[in-house]
Amino acid sequence: MPLTLLLAAVLLPSPARACGGMFCDAVTPVDQSAERIIFSFDSGGFVDTEVQITYSGQDDDFAWVVPVPAEPELYVSNDALFTALANATIPTYTLQTAETWYEKSCAGLTEVEPPPLPEFGTADYTDTADTDSGAINVVSTLTVGPYDTVVLQATDADVLVLWLQDQGYNLPEQLSTVLEPYVAEGQYFVALKLSSDKDTGDLTPLGMRYPATAASIPIQLTSVAAVPDLPIEVFVLGESRAVPDNYLHVTLNEAALDWFGGTANYRSVVAKAADEAGGQAFATDFVGPTANLGVRVWTEGVLHEEELAAEPDPIRWLNVVLGAVTASAQLTAFLPTVVPPPDGVDATSFLACPDCYAEDYVFPDWDPAAATTALDAAILTPLRAQQARLDRSPTLTRLFTTMDPSEMTADPIFVQNADLPQEVSATHVATQHLTYIDGALSSLALETAEGITYDIADPAAPSTEGIDKPSAMVISDLGATGAGTVLFDGTKAAKYAAEVTPDGCGGQDLGAAAPLLLLGAGLLRRRRR
Amino acid sequence: MIPRIVRFGTSLGALLGAGGCAVQPDRAPCDTLGDPGLEIAPADVDFGDFQAGDPLLYGNPPQGGAPYSPFHARVTGVPDLDDGASITLHAVDPTDDALLGDTPYEVRLVCANVGDSAGQWLGTDLHQRFNGWTLDDLEGRTMDLTLTIANQAGDGVEASLQGVLTRM
Chain B closest CA to A166's CA: distance in Å? Predict the structure, then answer.
């Protein structure tokens, strides 16, 4: 495929673990690879859209076209904010364990102290780790970072594609079909390709700023090159929580998650939940104050650019920059262009330890002022702008879905809603209640955060697969105001309540037998004396 | 509003009484309830409350592009709309027969199990787009809107309403 656009980044952080006492918590972050977009609303009626672009293919084949509702301002963005926001809001699922131990006698079940735990480690969970004709009006042409860009309008989609092809944009013929509705609506188009002296290693996120009251992903266009169940992750910075306006909203049924397998099926559950909502729906992973996230991609005063511009030693210059500037793929790609590694040393090794090469390093034409100016333009200015957008935005919303190309028939629109709860935690906890009788595991019940308890059929090989359940607990229609309308409520759809029923004398229900058990415990102790 | 039932093409599935759909767990029985029927209303109006000649709000979509008017709809008696529904919104001004918009698309409807629409298929965001029209050109025009919704087997329903385009 000549055009392979994967607006994706793969982040596979190691899960944190906490384990001890009677509780062993397996904390599992979800797989994060996805097409990522950051929207940022400002009070002046503008929306900033930052799109993370990764691409696999030939340099000459790279081409990208995106419709926007108004003439945009284009700018270079940076991976740093994507990484920081993603890491700060990873949905994590914690399965905690509560054990109850009984001894069985013909008088009933007697609750007893559990045996001492082996030193730490009561469970072992695998880490989950896992894109000129009269019909064309060229508004502007600009070089933005590594891209040659053109902003244009068109009155005919076929002419638009032909024109772009003539300009060296490698675009598939079938693109004109999906461009037609955007052309009919009079939208602007941003087209970009790599500048002739750039290669795919120079790809950087692209920012677009334009007047709008809502944010939208031109997903219909994506359908041309999309893969099945394309993961889409959307971060929205703004005054208040963001919701999908023309897509439905799903709240996941946590019982559908594979708690016993590290919730590795998170994506599958989201995909099924979205399918249950007609294929066009988003789940909210996180909503909360940005101030509480501890996210900073730029701090004024950390880097003294005047001193840097006068630094005579390129290695020291490099060390200062590496120590003060938020890491990003763009920084890693930029630094070797101003401080090239010594002959025979690859850039990764050089940047990992510049001091290791200091003795032999000879840089004949070191110009710290030029290097600092270039750093400012390529890296620092985008970081400052990202931090400013973060600082002006009290609330961050993280939304997620997966979509098949066949479902990409309408562009999702996101609006802000101040009436809904303004906090949605990314942390989810369920409890597995283990019941032991005479030292042997007798039963296991899974209790979700909603307080719904499920008996697990085989405690020795626990799985949620057998539970008959929808993947969406709630499907709702949300908008810019109000609490929205609930269309589907999972609690009305299934028998959710279930009692824990251990295999004890008389098959009694533990809940009903609790007073008898207490009495039995008293009798047992007296006999022992 | 004039609901009427139509059949688009031949439906072997309907004749056999089986849609071949993937059964959703514990879904309300939208596949089996009642006679075929379709209700349509502007998005800001509850089903049943719209009267012929009432205002039909329209405006520029928040993401930009051609003017639009939002509607919602609910369907009974047509199976398998969660497998895929072909929707067409067709709008004309009866005073001069001007074509205001013709918007076909594919969606999958949701079977509601709570609220007033429980047991019915819901389409919550059906937008009539007015490609080629400006906001000023549309102001005050009478719009006859016809909505058709059909499943993949061709079984469908159709309903119409008439109102006066009024800016949001």
Answer: 26
